[in-house]
Amino acid sequence: MGELVNIIQERRSASKYIPDVTIDPKELEEIFQLVKFAPSAFNLQHAHYIVVQDADTKQRLHDEASKQYKILTASATIVVLGDTEAYTKVAEYNEGFLNLGVLSKQEYDSTVESVTQFYRERGPVFQREEAIRNASLSAMQFMLIAKDKGWDTCPMIGFDPEKVQEVLNIPQKFVPVMMITLGKEDVSGQRPRGYRKPVGQFVSYNGF
């Protein structure tokens, strides 16, 4: 528990990175092997990640993200996507339970039908909101795991989502939720941590 508290307290949004620091693909794989345990509604696993390390592609992302320099100096820029059609995978993701006997055929069919109906009845706006919600849960887990492995991150929303979709050939069913830069922070000139509200200002019990 103490280690988790330290990670939470030490993780900060990096404002600039030490240039030319590379991250091994094996280490990225280790991070994502843990990211997959993030929670998601109905275990639909809405998040998809695009890891950008190619210099030319990073330059193009930089140009569509208000020319934020940290995109160029980060070891990788991660584009976090949310799948608006994740619910269509409910049958596939529950087949294992069916084959193992955890779910009966009746329970399996009922799960597939109810989850599919749940999303279809609520329509495209809800499906988009769900994609963003669940991808954001996954993204926070990514940043905490990265910090645990000694890497710094910064979530970013200042970009043109349509242009980013074009640059990375992202299918329309995916919503670009955020970018996350990943690298080793250059802490020279680092500011103190920003103001945090007291708990009493953002927590209520049994009503607002």
TrEMBL record:
<dbReference type="InterPro" id="IPR029479">
    <property type="entry name" value="Nitroreductase"/>
</dbReference>
<comment type="similarity">
    <text>Belongs to the nitroreductase family.</text>
</comment>
<dbReference type="Pfam" id="PF00881">
    <property type="entry name" value="Nitroreductase"/>
</dbReference>
<keyword id="KW-0560">Oxidoreductase</keyword>
<dbReference type="GO" id="GO:0016491">
    <property type="term" value="F:oxidoreductase activity"/>
</dbReference>
<dbReference type="InterPro" id="IPR000415">
    <property type="entry name" value="Nitroreductase-like"/>
</dbReference>
<protein>
    <submittedName>
        <fullName>NAD(P)H nitroreductase ydfN</fullName>
    </submittedName>
</protein>
<feature type="domain" description="Nitroreductase">
    <location>
        <begin position="8"/>
        <end position="184"/>
    </location>
</feature>
